[in-house]
């Protein structure tokens, strides 16, 4: 392998294990809840913290980690992240209690935060032109592969070995990535960096992103009946307001405000908020509708999206190359429109669509019913083709819109927006859809108080009740709510396409001075 192939392998493995760990471990949660002793946490509460503690820490520290990559050296920071992720994976695998596992997951998320922006920063600093586009495409395809393989690999490890193997599987991947980084990745950093790192700005950013992310997740888990979610959101909003004020006042800010003077950088982040908001809504409600309303088995709901995801794995590299050759705008415009067509296909799924049950010991249920090929497969394929057209060009547009010296920070800002923004949008949409669901029930169920606490405990959106007298009515109301969610998701995608069509300029490479500086640094 040439040096650049080793650099690409290190970047793909480094970010891949972070994405993989958020999906592999999710499958292992039920077994973790049964096996681990607990002192303070309940079973469901502990499982939730094992999953969300990792994602919250990862989200809260992304921007800080991106700045650290540029400031202290991308190779050095990436290596520290790899070693930290490997060590915390071992600690998670040997965790003797639920509380300690949650603590180790927090540390694992902190290490993972160093890897995601660091991987794209390594590619930006060491690749250029069409070669860079192919590298971004490979990175995007690998991310798609982890999405597909994560649940399958997690289920296999849990069923055949132990849930602890879901953490130990990271160790050999970390070892290969660390060796490739140590031997073949040249050091690069921001040559304009001063000796004064903006730690106050870093704290404000962590409070902003962490407060918004925690408040949204905690509030949804508690159905917005616990003040903790509101308090966290207030902290996040106040920190977000303070952030630009501090960045203007300090001499060497963590986030240079001139980054947002780049037209493409600002436009990409706006479209990321819209498009990833649609992804969050679509994936969340398709899964809930299939399982809660139609009666799909969990494994069937997960497997049903694989055909569309394969496009992301096999075609992302090609579209990354095309984006570098012709510019990203056309792909970032057409891709979301095609995705919207796929989402609109879901909006026609009827309430009586036959479920895919996958019953153990009954081979006749292993093959999908005809309704799956009519109601869900076409939408998944159309959506998958659209997203493979979008992801690599969006990454190209993002990473060529910022100076090479700020590549880690630019990647981190976009990653933070793609993680936290959609959760906030999803929370607002959930409140709206829930209100629409109960309003629909109220119009169909005369003499029933649908606003009562007891009623809402047994009947909720996208969840068929046990009472046979309510099944048909609730199923119809749930289907209407699902259709509305898909219309909202398609609308967000079209809005993102319009933003890209109007705002993106086809700039596929850094300015010559920046390219020369990056080359000298490398």
Characterization of the model:
The protein is mostly helical and 522 residues long. It has three domains: 1-187, MFS general substrate transporter like domains (Growth Hormone, Chain: A, Up-down Bundle), CATH 1.20.1250.20; 198-253; 259-522, Growth Hormone, Chain: A (Up-down Bundle). The chain is built from 19 helices and no strands. The chain has helices at 3-35, 43-72, 74-93, 98-126, 129-160, 165-168, 170-184, 199-221, 227-249, 263-294, 298-303, 306-326, 329-346, 370-375, 377-399, 407-444, 453-458, 468-503, 512-521.
Whole-number total of structural domains: 3
Overall number of strands: 0
Main sheet overview: none
Total helix count?
Answer: 19
Overall CATH architecture of the largest domain: Up-down Bundle
Q: Which shape, going by the Cα principal axes?
A: globular
Strand content: under 5%
Give the rounded overall mean pLDDT.
Answer: 83
Just give the CATH class of the largest domain: Mainly Alpha
CATH topology of the largest domain: the name is Growth Hormone, Chain: A
Helix content: over 70%
Question: Rg from C-alpha positions?
Answer: 23 Å
Structural class call reads mainly alpha
- Sketch the topology as an H/E string, one letter per element: HHHHHHHHHHHHHHHHHHH
CATH superfamily of the largest domain: MFS general substrate transporter like domains
Which consecutive residue ranges, at least 5 long each, have pLDDT under 50?
508-522
Any descriptors?
3 domains, single chain, globular, Growth Hormone, Chain: A, mainly alpha, disordered C terminus, 0% strand, 522 residues
């Amino acid at each position: 392998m040439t040096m650049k192939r080793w650099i690409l392998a290190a970047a793909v493995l480094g970010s891949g294990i972070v994405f993989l760990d958020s999906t592999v471990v999710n499958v292992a949660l039920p077994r973790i809840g049964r096996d681990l002793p607990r002192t303070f946490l309940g079973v469901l509460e502990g499982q939730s913290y094992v999953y969300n503690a990792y994602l919250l820490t990862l989200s809260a520290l992304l921007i800080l980690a991106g700045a650290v990559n540029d400031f202290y050296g991308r190779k050095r920071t990436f290596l520290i992240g790899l070693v930290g992720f490997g060590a915390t994976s071992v600690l998670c695998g040997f965790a003797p209690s639920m509380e300690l596992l949650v603590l180790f997951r927090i540390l694992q998320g902190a290490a993972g935060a160093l890897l995601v922006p660091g991987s794209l920063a390594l590619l930006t600093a060491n690749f250029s032109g069409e070669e860079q586009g192919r590298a971004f495409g490979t990175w995007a395809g690998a991310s798609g592969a982890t999405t597909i393989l994560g649940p399958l690999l997690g289920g296999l490890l849990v069923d055949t070995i132990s849930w602890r193997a879901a953490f130990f599987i990271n160790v050999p991947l970390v070892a290969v990535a660390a060796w490739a980084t140590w031997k073949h990745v040249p050091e690069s950093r921001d040559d304009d960096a001063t000796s004064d790192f903006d730690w106050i700005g870093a704290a404000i950013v962590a409070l902003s992103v962490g407060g918004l992310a925690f408040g949204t997740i905690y509030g949804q888990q508690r159905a917005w009946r616990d003040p903790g979610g509101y308090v966290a959101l207030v902290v996040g909003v106040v920190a977000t307001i303070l952030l630009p004020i501090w960045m203007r006042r300090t001499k060497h800010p963590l986030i240079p405000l001139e980054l947002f003077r780049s037209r493409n950088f600002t436009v990409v982040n706006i479209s990321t908020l819209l498009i990833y908001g649609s992804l969050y809504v679509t994936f969340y409600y398709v899964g809930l509708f299939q399982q809660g309303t139609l009666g799909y088995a969990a494994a069937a709901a997960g497997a049903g999206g694989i055909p569309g995801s394969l496009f992301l794995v096999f075609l992302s590299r090609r579209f990354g190359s095309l984006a570098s050759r012709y510019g990203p705008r056309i792909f970032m415009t057409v891709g979301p429109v095609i995705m919207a067509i796929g989402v609109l296909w879901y909006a026609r799924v009827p309430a009586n669509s036959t479920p895919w049950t996958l019953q153990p010991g009954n081979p006749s249920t292993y093959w999908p019913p005809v309704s799956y090929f009519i109601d869900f497969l076409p939408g998944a394929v159309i959506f998958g083709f659209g997203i493979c057209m979008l992801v690599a060009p969006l990454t190209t547009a993002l990473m060529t819109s910022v100076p090479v010296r700020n590549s880690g920070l630019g990647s981190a800002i976009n990653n933070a927006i793609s993680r936290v923004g959609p959760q906030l949008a999803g929370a607002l949409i959930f409140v709206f859809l829930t209100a629409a669901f109960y309003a629909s029930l109220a119009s169909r169920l005369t003499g029933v108080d649908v606003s009562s606490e007891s009623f809402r405990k047994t009947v909720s959106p996208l969840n068929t009740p046990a009472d046979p007298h309510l099944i048909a009515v609730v199923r119809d109301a749930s289907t209407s709510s699902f259709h509305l969610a898909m219309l909202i998701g398609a609308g967000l995608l079209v809005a993102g396409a319009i933003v890209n069509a109007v705002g993106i300029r086809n700039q596929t490479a850094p300015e010559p001075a920046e390219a020369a500086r990056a080359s000298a640094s490398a």
